[in-house]
Amino acid sequence: MHLLIEAEIEDAFFACPLCGSARPPYRFGSRSRTLFDLPIRMKPVQILAHRRRYRCRECSGTFLDQLPGIHASHDATERLIRYIEAHALQLTGTFTSLAKTLGMSEKVVRMIFHAEVSRLEQEYVIQTPRYLGIDEIYVEDHIYCVLADIEHHCIIDLLPKRDMDSVKKWLSQLQNKDRVECVTENEPESPRDVSGG
């Protein structure tokens, strides 16, 4: 069960977004759109937004009321998208459980999560460590290469493979390589081979 809230724009937007005309447009019908919003008292919320449709007196183009606070790519409020991004990144539950809490499909929650991860990956700049640690982690029978900043006790990258070529490629793309003073891992012969020393 979910809560359904009906909403309508009170202050109509009278400048044509197509040609910029300030002449009041003709009313040209209406459309409704169902949007998802943050849960209220643990119940999923849907907003049934009634939008007026207009026809411009100058260019004859048609347009709808603008809905403030609605995400451009999803039938959801911007605050719900931010909520999904934050909760999905915390990894405190599954996409399915988050989708159920919000009353929306798991596919949409997963898409929002992946879009946020892509955005964060583009913004992420690796700070070259002085002491680079190379290790591995097993996840569902797959070995990933973990690259860590030993001095600051943090993981700086995760590679899909833990082979010499992957690590060499990663090191070749690293900015300020000369800042690395020491490379360490659990196999003593590999750091020398990788770093060229």
From TrEMBL:
Name of this protein: Transposase IS204/IS1001/IS1096/IS1165 family protein
Pfam family, one: Zn_ribbon_ISL3
Entry superkingdom: Bacteria
Domain annotation Transposase IS204/IS1001/IS1096/IS1165 zinc-finger: ranges: 14-59
Organism this protein belongs to: Ktedonobacter racemifer DSM 44963
